[in-house]
Amino acid sequence: MGPALCLVSAACFGAMAIFGKFAYDAGVSPAALLLVRFSLAAALLGVVLLLRPGLRRAEPGEHRAVPTGRVLATAIALGAVGYAAQAGLFFSALRLMDASLLSLILYTYPVLVTVAAVLLGRDRLTPGRTAALLAASGGTLLVLLGAGGVSFHPVGALLAFGAAVTYTVYILVADTVVHRLPPVVLSALVMTGAAGTLGLGAALTGGVDLDFRPPGWFWLACIAVVSTVLAMLTFFAGLRRTGPSTAAILSTFEPVVTTALAALTLGESLSPVQLAGGALVLTSVAVLQVRPTGRARAGGPVTGDAAVGGSRPSTRLTEAGRL
Known about the structure:
The protein is 71% helix and 2% strand. By secondary structure, it is mostly helical. The chain has one domain (2-57, 65-292, 310-320). It has a two-stranded antiparallel sheet with strand order 1-2. α5 (99-106) packs parallel to α8 and α5 runs antiparallel to α12. The radius of gyration is 19 Å and the shape is globular. The chain crosses the membrane at residues 33-51, 71-94, 100-120, 132-152, 158-178, 185-205, 217-239. Pfam families: EamA.
């Protein structure tokens, strides 16, 4: 069940860009999309936590101290600043470019996380990871330079890279608190923080236009329920059964789903060069998630599922990043 749950989660996340395209066609603005998505997701996660009190506690065998006010404030700030900004960049890019190309550009974030972790001294660079990073860089260039059948938009590409960079910073900050809060609690706080920022922004700018066609509400519900709440819950359920490295590798199914759905429903296509580049990026991401046995740091051994509470962001991003 673990791998199946991870794949279901990846499919739900992968469908989000498609739902967003349909929402835009129904007259939904990016501001309305983001506000409704995070507000509805925060409310639904709150209901889930009320109905399932066990999700508010640490898993058996885990030792999470009672979170301090600083930890809770950091979790809310992750949503209010980091996740709200990342989502804003992502959905702004989605208005300008194809969903398939956007998904491949965004999925450079695991590579960026690894590079940043090495530079910050949180991870070490091995020959295998060096080769994976070089392959990912080459794949990214192929994706961008091989614009054949895809409508390439430079500003959209910059926004997409901005979303990947913002997501990288978000994950590195989340890496400091992810082991101190139960995953669903952390997700609920992040969604609440993002909804608060967007709600405040709407109040200061005269509100958000919610007067769009009924299909727009349907696609917004799909984004909030399927591509946010259901995707997150199935991911964490799969994570508990497979461990972080396996869950991260299976998550590379996400841009594959986006590309396939974009071809089926939106008529989008990637050139052969871009498909080859995307394959290089996704393969590199999978390689980077394989945690070597033994010591991750001089501080001691970390093996198997213990990596969830360990020190390597490129595996713990599976718990912090998929919100």
